[in-house]
Amino acid sequence: MAWRVAWVALCAALWAGLLITGCGGRPPADEKPRIALIMKSLANEFFLTMEQGARQHQAEHADRYALIAEGIKDELDVNRQVQLVEQMIARKVDAIVIAPADSKALAPVCGRAIAAGVIVVNIDNKFDDAVLADRGLRIPFVGPDNRKGARMVGEYLAKHLQPGDAVAIVEGVPGAFNAIQRRLGFEDAMKAAGMNIVAAQSGDWEMAKANRVVSAMITERPDLKAILCANDSMALGAVAALRAAGKLGEIKVVGFDNISAIQELLKKGEVLATADQHADRLAVFGIEYALQMLERRTDPEDRETPVDLITAEQAG
To answer: Do residues 285 and 202 both lie within one domain?
Structure first.
């Protein structure tokens, strides 16, 4: 009979647990919400800075929310990001703040998160509007105007060139919204200033890939006067390629992100300019908006965040 008493007690305890947490397994209403931050490659200093900023914010607001921060190993590991979102759905987090590796491929799983009652906020790389519309999804984008930021960098570069000069663009991952917008911003500035865009190729956001791309570009186009890189990791790769070819100083380089590794190169004149979208605050902007949606149940809407031109003067 003892085992029957134990069994009844166990069942009662489990039932009580369900009553406390709810059948969906979410924490009680008086517990702080859990927010998952899902980033792109943590091999990129930009996302490490993003994570550090988010963790500092949570430490300063520990009474408001709990943070789960995850990232992928490289910029192209879309499947791993999908798995991370699925894990957060299974863990029944209250909100997901995501910098998607792909503007289209992550939309379906984020739609499943929303269907499961999870609030989703998009940062860094905007979801494709057409894909969202096709799926009937409203996911707010909290982030900078990448085209505007890239145009500012390009306009500053143009002041150091002559009309008709040959320039090349090293793009981010093909199909990523922010990669497309930065390329368009560079093109806007170069065309307005009368420059000749003679080459454009993807560096997949990665330093090593950009190094190979730029090495080939400067061999094929010895008349190049400038290289516009869609992020600073690729700008680092471009500078290394120019140094190896003995062309450092002959061809100007610009980037985007203002990671700490680029600041010394700005001071030395090896990189002319970059754009700062405030990596340490970018996830925080998304987290704050997710908290607002949780607390007030407001309708999702896009929020533009700052992006600033950074030159040697600002880096100093």
So the answer is: no
